[in-house]
Specification:
- The complex is a heterodimer of chains A (95) and B (483).
- Chain A has 95 residues and is mainly alpha-helical.
- Chain A has a domain of 39 residues: Orthogonal Bundle (Histone, subunit A), CATH 1.10.20.
- Helix content of chain A is 33%, strand content 4%.
- Chain A has three helices and two strands; from the N terminus they run H-H-H-E-E.
- In chain A, strands 1-2 form a two-stranded antiparallel sheet.
- In chain A, strand 1 and strand 2 form a beta hairpin.
- Chain A starts with a helix and ends in a 7-residue tail after the last strand.
- In chain A, 18% of the residues are buried.
- Chain B is of the alpha/beta class.
- Helix content of chain B is 38%, strand content 13%.
- Chain B contains 15 helices and eleven strands.
- In chain B, helix 7 packs antiparallel against helix 15.
- The radius of gyration of chain B is 21 Å and the shape is globular.
- Among the domains of chain B are: 249 residues, Amidase signature (AS) enzymes (Alpha-Beta Complex); 76 residues, no CATH class.
- The chains are: A mainly alpha (95), B alpha/beta (483).
- Chains A and B meet through helix 1 and helix 2 of A and helix 9, helix 10, helix 11, helix 12 and helix 13 of B.
Chain lengths: 95, 483
């Protein structure tokens, strides 16, 4: 199976991932090769097999609904690219 | 001093033969002298000496913890409060973690001195340490060869005696493969045995932290510190932690070892195969019984892994958005541009490749064909291990198809690189524990033997590895120039 450069652009957009124009061709080639590798899964009939999401087949653990974290806003915002008055700043979204 | 084991160092510190400050300074000097290997991303000189100084007071007071004053190093995937935590990426080049990973917290509590943060493949995605934003790490056995990856900095630092113990993480072989290529001992515990809290996520259903050392005995000590239930990790397993040193010397007479025929077929270097045969014979002499077994679905481990791991990575790495922490592009014109360019400029090529692959595999119309299919194969692989481990106590085999390959040799061909993980990946999919221990040399480069056990049988693996290390000396050999 092979991916076209348009498909690569579409996937990159879905992932909000900037890729350089000159690299699109090589991503298409690499990803197509990886898809060929994955196609080998088709050799095996897996009808009726239960998909395995997790090695321990665990269920999500529940805990009591009590506060366990303190307010770390200042600490966390100290490493943010841009903050103002306790808020994270991004470019204007609504005109 | 740098050739001593953790046990020997702990003894030397307690008897006053040397102080932790002297020991730490000796390691810091070695790190500086061998910085050409590029094993450390950050060296914490001042912090390490402060902790060592406090350790000496504690030792003088006669109440040391297990690792008081012992110099270790952390893979740069573990968050360290107040210390840069990069995960080998430009994305986190400016990231000072606001909290400690549970593993780091445990080492602090055990009194260990952290020398610094070790180089690694970017976001743990790689098998050669060449995808690091901070440059390739060199293998002390051959400076033109890779150390393996992704915990390549950890493995190379141990082989070069630039720390006595280190942490690693293993999603598809990232502890065992570099351990094999650098001739050291590495243990990937059972999934859920070691807390993942504060360990930057790559593929959450596969990631597991573990110890990397120069001997099985040291690995037992390190795992003792690392293992255990953690409320902060929702997949942490709430089972008691055994005393990993207690059974190290137990006899292994009657041990049943399974050799899967699929592990010894085409693709395995014949010299590596011969070294492994010698190692297996050593076990025979120790009283083990050897049995050939079959694990029929092993050949599908790589395709299944390269669906599941990228799928999980594409979801996990969505958090790097240039808004809350990490890299942000210059002058974004709008929010979409901010996300797209911050991610595009902050991630390297292999990380992007896996995000794209994972996004594709999870996108509408492909989810069943790739992700669900891969999870079904994961079930079958895990059954293979269950069946095998019902017949034998442990499975043994190679860790890698050959010895350390050259820097630059495979980096241009991602598929060739992926295929080099053929013997390690299935173990992560099943979630069982496995070790790599030194088992000889081929043309001067180390060969690793893999020992795979049942869920939570880390103590048994350590016992089996330790007994071998009592009758062989491979693990004691330093690379030339690092004696």
């Amino acid at each position: 199976m092979s991916l076209t450069t348009d498909e690569v652009k579409k996937i990159a957009h879905l992932a909000r991932l900037g890729i350089d124009k000159q690299d699109i061709e090589s991503y298409a080639k690499d990803l197509s090769g990886i898809l060929d590798l994955m196609a080998r899964m088709g050799e095996l009939n897996t009808d009726g097999i239960e998909p395995m999401a997790h090695p321990m087949d665990q269920v999500q653990r529940l805990r009591a609904d009590v506060v366990t974290e303190q307010d770390n806003r200042e600490k966390f915002q100290a490493i943010a690219p841009q903050v103002e008055a306790g808020l994270y700043l991004v470019p204007k979204v609504i005109e | 001093m740098h050739n001593k084991t953790i046990t020997q160092l702990a003894h030397g510190l307690r008897s006053g033969e040397f102080s932790s400050v002297e020991l730490t300074q000796a390691y810091l000097n070695r790190i500086k002298r061998h910085q050409g290997l590029n094993t450390y991303i950050t060296v914490c000189e001042d912090l390490a000496l402060q902790v060592a100084y406090a350790a000496d007071i504690r030792l003088a007071n006669g109440n040391p913890e297990l690792l008081t004053g012992i110099p270790i190093a952390q893979k740069d995937i573990f968050c360290t409060e107040g210390v840069k935590t990069t995960c080998g990426s430009k994305m986190l080049d400016n990231f000072i973690a606001p909290y400690n990973a549970t593993v780091v917290e445990k080492f602090n509590q055990a009194g260990a001195v952290m020398l610094g943060k070790l180089n690694m493949d970017e976001f743990a995605m790689g098998s050669s340490n060449e995808t690091s934003y901070y440059g390739a790490v060199r293998n002390p056995w051959d400076i033109n060869a890779v150390p393996g990856g992704s915990s390549g900095g950890s493995a190379a630092a141990l082989a070069a005696r630039l720390a006595v113990g280190a942490t690693g993480t293993d999603t598809g072989g990232s502890i065992r493969q570099p351990a094999a290529l650098c001739g050291i001992t590495g243990l990937k515990p059972t999934y859920g045995r070691v807390s993942r809290y504060g360990m930057i996520a790559y593929a959450s259903s596969l990631d597991q932290g573990g110890p990397m050392t120069r001997s099985a005995e040291d690995a037992a000590i390190m795992l003792q510190v690392m293992a255990g239930f953690d409320e902060k990790d929702s997949t942490s397993v709430d089972l008691p932690v055994p005393d990993y040193r207690a059974g190290l010397n137990n006899s292994i007479a009657g041990l049943k070892i399974g050799l899967p025929k699929e592990f010894f077929g085409e693709g395995l270097d014949s010299d590596v195969a011969a070294a492994l045969e010698t190692a297996v014979n050593e076990y025979r002499k120790l009283g083990a019984e050897i049995k050939e077994i079959s694990m029929p679905n092993l050949n599908l481990a790589i395709p299944a892994y390269y669906v599941i791991a990228p799928a999980e990575c594409s979801a996990n790495l969505a958090r790097f958005d240039g808004v809350r922490y990490g890299y942000r592009c210059e002058n974004p014109v709008d929010l979409s541009d901010l996300y797209t360019r911050s991610r595009g400029e902050g991630f390297g090529k292999e990380v992007k490749r896996r995000i794209l692959m994972g996004t594709y595999a999870l996108s509408a119309g492909y989810y069943d064909a790739y992700y669900i299919k891969a999870q079904k194969i994961r079930r079958l692989l895990s059954e293979d291990f269950k069946n095998a481990l019902a017949q034998v106590d442990v499975v043994m085999g190679p860790v890698t198809p050959g010895t350390a390959f050259g820097i630059g040799e495979k980096i241009g061909n991602p598929i060739a690189m992926y295929l080099s993980d053929i013997y390690t990946i299935a173990i992560n999919l099943a979630g069982v524990p496995a070790m790599s221990i030194p088992a000889g040399f081929v043309k001067g480069k180390p060969v690793g033997l893999q020992i795979i056990g049942n869920y939570f049988a880390e103590d048994r693996l350590l016992n089996i590895a330790h007994r071998y290390q009592q009758v062989t000396g491979w693990h004691l050999q330093p690379p030339k120039g690092f004696e």
